[in-house]
Each structure stands twice: as structure tokens, then as C-alpha cells.
Amino acid sequence: MVVDDRRFRRRELLVAGALGMAALAGCGRAGEGVQEVSARGAGAYRGRPVDLTYWTGFTGDDGPTMQALVDRFNREEPRIDVAMNVILWNDFYQKVPAAVYSGNGPDVGVMQVDQVPINAAHEIILPVDDVARRLGIDDREFPRDVIQASTYRGRRYGIPLDLHPLGLYYNKAVLDEAGLPPDRPPADRSEYMEALGQLKGKGVQGSWVSPFLFTGVLQFQSLLFQFGGNLFSTDGSRATWAEDPGVEALQFMVDLVRKGYSPANVAQDADNIAFLNGQNAFMWNGPWAINQYAAQPDFAWAAAPLPKIGTRRAAWTNSHQFVVMRPGGQDPDRLEASVRFIDWMSRNSAAWAQSGMIPARASERATPTFRKLKAQAAFAREVDAARFPPPVPGAPDVRVVTLDVAVQDAVLGRKPPRAALQESARSANALLAVNREKFGEV
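and the corresponding C-alpha cells:
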């Protein structure tokens, strides 16, 4: 089976923007009087004809899906013409601030929700509380946590488009050959370990543990949440991953390696390649992999929610959210057209699910268009279990250089889980203190 390496890049780019925001370190903190976007309400646009610029990082298989939606909107709204500009995510988070500060920024953009707080703090994007109220963006249609994830200092800065949680993929052929039911994935720790034991008896290491962000650090975060822990304190002042829930989570991963259910020293993407090649059975991965797996000929696979390893159901999750950029000039028609575009995209987001993402809007998840997508529908069962880090500016940057290193050290056997987490938390706390000095309290 031949795997296109270009498909792997999609996973790195989903969160690579965290590193790009370091360039903003000297740009100052948010002011209290920043302009807020207002809206006349949902429905047809009634302003003068306008051309809108729309920037995204959808450079993978999701790009054509988004472009088709933009083209459809342009046909249905003849007084608004939206031009989409696609930039690699890790470049996107550097180019957007520079463009906005120079007065040449886009009207609308999409950001991963963990990047919303720092862009809000630097006044790159505008609060959209009024927009959200008028468009009915509330917890009757959207998960409360995905709304809260884009709320910074009590103000909302994002309109959710989708969710992309970590889920469980399983190789049906490998399970069947090991005498396990190919259509009933494990739902809890007992079933998961029983399946791994049976696979091991057939010579298969069934759950490869990656020491890298994809997929090991995402797996750790999911397990941390399942054991009742959090990444940071609510106010973002300290890292909390070194407490008992984090130690339990990382110990579980290390034990998978120690007991032979995973090879040691798994290389970047080796877990994914092994899953595709039938060398392991279970892959903790996100919905961005759906189209990759679906494109492999004669590959029998399916998706399910993560097994409940800890005391509660939980899954690391991110979200693409629409944001309105701070304009170079005040133009009510452009702002109103931007709001109309965002509303239309949200109300047609079932079509966006073709990219692998899960619509944030409940009514779109209930449509026949979405429900026929079996893998996406499996991920949608995790909506109530979706967990996000607190909306703290700079938190992703801190995690990358502290927690990610600790997970790698423990999984590779360099340090015991507790020691690795404690050392990384101390380093993180120092960085968080610098951020609080820079941005103020959340």
C-alpha cells in the first residue's frame, strides 16, 4: 500500500500556527475600547455591492471543499463577492497580523480556536458578541465549550464553524485476523486492554504510542481530560498537567510501550503508516485523516469515539472559527457583508463536513447530508465530550516547548512520567508569568 506523504502535512498544519504567533510578542495588550462588530440580523444582505477578502489555511484536501462553498455563496449572494486566499497555517498566523496592522488585512478569516485569544489580545480580530446574539450563536445550537473556547476577557471573538476532536480509528482486517469483532471497537479501558492482549497474542502490537505532537501529545491531552485533569488553571497562571490525572494519563501511555503493546521509539508518522499497512489495530487520530484513509484502496477501517480509559469521556478538540479582522477603515456595508457570509457558511456547514470536519451547528449535524457520512458521524458522537484548553494568550506556545517535550521524554523512556511532567510544569509556569506580565490577567 502506497501512502502519499503530502497527506501527513495536514496534521502538522492544524496546530502549527502556535509557533507563528511568537512574532507578536512586542505588539502590546488589548485595549478596553476596541471596536465591536455589530449586525442588523440574519437574512439577505441589503447594502451596496462589495468585494470581500477571506483568508484561510486550508491548503490540503479541505481547500477545494471550502472553495466550492465560497463559489456557491457568491452565486446566491450577487451583491457580495468573496475572494478566498489560502495560506499555509504556519505562515497564516504571521501574515495576518502584519497585514492588519498595515491596513491591508482581510475582511474575514478562519482561525483555530486556540489561536483566537492571542489575536484578540493584539486586537487583530474584533469582538463579535452582537453578531453572535443576532445570529443565534448560543448553546441551543452550539456546544457550550466551543463557544467558551473563543471567549476572551468576557467577550466573544469567534463564530464556530466546526469541531475536530481526537477519535479512534480501527483496522477491521487486523481485528478480524486476531479473532476480534471487526465492527465493535473497544469502548472502555477493560475492553481496550483485552483487545490489545489478544492482538499481542497474535504477534500484533495494537496501539502504537507516538512521542510527537501527532499523535502522542494529543493522546496525552485526551487522557488527561479523561482522568479529570486540565492543562492550565482557569486563569492561565499555572500549568496543571503535572497533577495526579496527568501522571495517570502519561503512565498509561508509557505502560503501553513497556508491556509491548506498542514499539519503543516510534518515529514521526510511523504509527499512521503502520495502521495503514496492517501492523497495528488502533489509531488515535483526528477527523482530518478521514479522507486520507478513504482514499486507500482495499483498506477496511472505521472510526469511533475514544475509549473511556479514565473516569469520564473526553477528547482533545480544536475548532475552526470565523473571525472578523480589525478594518483599516470603518465601512458598515463591508462589516454587514462579512456577517452575512459567516452566517451563510455556518448554516451550510454540513457540506463542509466533506472535508472531514464536524459541523459545530447542531441542526447541520442532523441533516441527511451529514448523517450519511459514517466516519464523520462517529466523530460527532464526541461533541459532548469535546475538551479545549482555556482561552489564554500564548498558551499553545508554552505547551509546545514544555509539555510536548515532557511527553516525548517519558514515552521514549528518558524520564519517569511524574518527573518529566513536574519539570515541564515548572518551566511552563515561568513562561506563563511572562505572558501575564505582557497581556495582563485573563
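(Above: one complete record from the training split.) Residues 139 and 320 are 17 Å apart (CA to CA).
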